[in-house]
Amino acid sequence: MSELLEQLAVCIERGKVNIKSPFPPDLKGQEGADELTKRAIDESIHPNDILNDGLMIGMQRVGDKFETGKAFIPDMLIAAKAMNAAMVHLKPFFESGEAELKGDFIIGTVAGDLHDIGKNIVKMVLTGGGWNVIDLGSDVKAEKFVETLKEYPNALVGMSALLTTTMMQMEVTTKAIKEVFPKTKVFVGGAPLSQEFSDKIGADGYFPDPNKFVKYLATAV
Predict the structure, then answer these.
(1) Same fold, 3-96 and 104-220
(2) pLDDT at 43
(3) DSSP symbol at 20
(4) Taking the model in full, what pTM does it have?
(5) Cα–Cα distances in Å, from 49 out to 9, 33, 40, 67, 163?
(6) CA-to-CA distance for 212 and 214, rounded, in angstroms?
């Protein structure tokens, strides 16, 4: 990995957004993910290399820390801000086809549930893993998932729920999706869920940890 891409990976891992960002304190006044990504493009580093050897490395590091209890939700959220700042510069290359993403992933919190922190973390980790994430937001009805799949027919789907009262909306949504797109893989996540519940509603998998989920997708899909 080049020194520039290693610096970029550190900025993602530590949540250093740009040179104006005061966080983290030991990197104050230094370039962040914003400037370093632009510099990498200016130095003709291929966008795929910037994503794979810079951004994804940083995301993997913070994800591994989260998985082992050495990083927490605030760490993931600030890493997401740095990741978003970098992706602004890469987005035109993905849209033009010059750089390749791993695929489309539709994500949303199910109808009746307004909680989105967990969903947002999964979105960030998926983006860092090279996926084009279509975020439907929270309180998403089954019909919206199906409508979006018509636009992205090869997409995977992820649903989250934090409340036991909204868990059953996952079954409604999964059935609605499978009726129209029987081959579409649907994954679920959220504090009250389990693999047993995922199996019961006909989903294709349950993952309590976003980092493990992205690793699974890298090998299984």
Answers:
(1) no
(2) 95
(3) T
(4) 0.82
(5) 12, 15, 10, 25, 40
(6) 6
Spelled out in words, what is the top-level CATH class assigned to the domain 3-96? mainly alpha
The domain limits of the chain are 3-96, 104-220
Neighbours of 197 (CB within 10 A): 17
Backbone angles phi, psi at 172, to 5 degrees: -60, -45
Would you say the C-alpha torsion 136, 139, 142, 147 has a positive or negative sign? Answer: negative
Residue type present at position 209: D
The answer to whether the beta carbons of residues 164 and 192 sit under 8 Å apart is: yes
pLDDT on residue 1: 57
Candidate CATH numbers 3.40.50.720, 1.10.10.10, 3.40.50.280, 3.30.70.3090; the one for domain 104-220: 3.40.50.280
| Nearest Cα residue to 206 out of 218, 214, 221, 194 | 194
- For the stretch 157-169, pLDDT in tens is 999 998 888 999 9
Contact predicate 102/75, CB 8 Å:
no
Most confident listed range (90-94, 150-154, 217-221) = 150-154
Sign of CA pseudo-dihedral 193, 194, 200, 205: positive
If one compares 87 and 220, the residue with the highest pLDDT of the two is 87
